[in-house]
Design goal:
Layout lengths: L1 E4 L3 E4 L8 E7 L3 H13 L3 E7 L7 E8 L4 H32 L2
Antiparallel strand pairs: 1-2, 2-3, 3-5, 4-5
Helix pairs in contact: 1-2
């Protein structure tokens, strides 16, 4: 049933050979990344459905389900990951700027 296991990420085989509907298992992740990715995916107009679940509290993994209208799921997942990195970089820049402004007040 499992198709590709790259250590951190595993793509679960789809009964249809359709790449617009996939379940992806992310190992060593929890609600923190799951909810952020779900949010970024839902914002994408190419995504029909995005959701995640934690199979069991003692398992340190999440199942991410993605359904798209036409684009491959891995394409929209990569975009969601890129968007997440850009958002994190922006937050760090804002914090650094505020810290410098605060330090200059002395």
């Amino acid at each position: 049933m499992e198709r590709e296991d790259t250590g951190k990420l595993m793509i679960v085989d789809n009964e249809d050979a359709d790449d617009t509907c996939s379940t992806i298992v992310l190992h060593n992740e929890d609600h923190t990344l799951g909810n952020v990715l779900r949010h970024m995916l839902i914002k994408n107009k190419d995504v029909e459905f995005a959701g995640y679940s934690v199979p069991h509290p003692s398992e340190n993994k999440i199942n991410l389900r993605i359904q798209t209208y036409e684009k491959p799921c891995l394409t929209v997942l990569c975009k969601a990951l890129d968007d997440t990195c850009k958002a994190c970089d922006h937050i760090l820049d804002v914090i650094d700027k505020a810290e410098k402004e605060f330090d200059e007040m002395d």
